[in-house]
Amino acid sequence: MVRFIHAADLHLDSPFIGLKSLPDFLWEQIYQSTFQSFTKVVDLAIEKQVDFLCIAGDIYDSEDRSVKAQAYLRNELIRLEVAEIPVFICHGNHDYIENLGLHLDMPVNVVIFNEAVETHWLTTKRNERIAITSFSYHQRWIKERRIEEYPLRSSDAHYQIGMLHGSSEGIASEHGIYAPFSLAELKSKKYDYWALGHIHKRQFLSENPLIVYSGNTQGRSSKETGAKGCELVELTENGAKHEFYETAPIKWQSKELSLKGLKNLGEVYQAIQSYLSQLKEQDQGQFIALSLKDSDELNLSVSKKIQSGELLEALQQINPVDQPFIWVYKLSIIEATSSQSDLNFLTKEWQVALKKIHEEVTFNEATNFLFDQIDSGEQLDSRDSDYRQQIVADGKALIMQQLGIEGSEIYED
Q: Rounded mean pLDDT of the chain?
């Protein structure tokens, strides 16, 4: 039996994306979060007395890795050296090997894979021979199918593990396509486990053999919601077992809250505060995008307070000593469905106008003057379909408010 931890995409010293005007005490927690998440990985490795640790790429956030991040990593790996736990590292597209003269030396228990695919061997305390095969990126863009260079499983190995930082074909992802591979190619190597990196969402491609994206150890933006951590894996002659351990000190979440029956600002504020208190975790801070539904009975003035951002500002008045924190970074009202609202209220001409403005060409023509402004253009998001839908929805709500139409009026027959 062999027991090890599979982690990937640490992105040490990485900035969070999509947050503005945070108080200083939150910025400090954000800055420390990627470091703290890896400390939890090391704590787990020592607690479980694993045979080794695999880190499948993107240890740092960029090839120009900070000296602080390197020193932090080295100190954590020394803790594993003292515990007699070997570490196997491959570098990915974010932290590809470059400027070796600017790298700190790592402790002797650490193996860093070179640019060519290679296999390193480890004999465990139970005299099991483990083969670990991988490579490190030598540049940011690797389009070649490096999987073709991986050898077949060695007959001399009790267990063989492949580490690969790359893109699985057939999986939709916002990440760039690097070192692509297919599931069939991985299985053809006959390895006992594939420790994958690059995709920040935890995913299982196969149970036999286990082929796993462990995801990143700390979410860095609103797109990286949910639990983040590492995999504790056990391989035996009878099969494989795996268990996920959460390591992120901060979690991104998207939540919905019903305002059914609520009309006044005080009622809404209290309902939100009560809901947030229920979400509080014991040892994990949270960034939350909160969407409010069933808002048809709200007074118009309350809707305006929400749309203008005033209520959000009130919710962000949190006490630094109140830890772990909950920070609502986005507050919005979910627009009623067309069957409830548009068909009962909007005229045919209005519906035609709405449909037209959703079109990319019409939308761009109407908003070009904004993007032509240097100052405002830097603050605006790209005009993709999600952005257009949100702008149109906000504009529609604003027009209804300016017409003095209450939510309850909209739904009357």
A: 86
Q: What is the pLDDT of residue 388?
A: 73
Residue 7 three-state SS: strand
**Confidence bin at 172 (pLDDT 50/70/90):** low
Angle at which helix 385-402 crosses helix 360-371, to 10 degrees, equals 80
CA 59 to chain centre: 15
Cα–Cα distance for residue pair 6/229, rounded to 1 Å: 10
- Which amino acid is located at 309 in the chain? G
Residue with structure tokens 């998001």?
Answer: 381
What pLDDT digit, counting tens, does each position of 265-275 carry?
999 999 999 99
Q: How far apart are CA 37 and CA 335, in angstroms?
A: 37
Q: Cβ–Cβ contacts within 10 Å for residue 266, how many?
A: 10
Q: E strands within 278-377?
A: 285-293, 326-333
Tokens of 291: 């969407």
Beta strands in 223-272 (DSSP E): 229-236, 239-246, 250-258
Contact 122, 157 (CB under 8 A): no
Identity of the residue numbered 76: E
How far CA 241 is from CA of 5, 63, 86, 202, 388, in Å, comes to: 12, 34, 21, 16, 45
Residue 233: exposed, middle, or buried by beta-carbon count in 10 A (0-12, 13-18, 19+)?
buried
Task: State the Cα–Cα distance between residues 209 and 402, nearest whole angstrom.
Answer: 60
Please report the pLDDT score of residue 409 as a whole number. Answer: 41
pLDDT tens per residue, range 351-393: 777 777 777 777 777 776 665 554 444 445 556 676 777 777 7
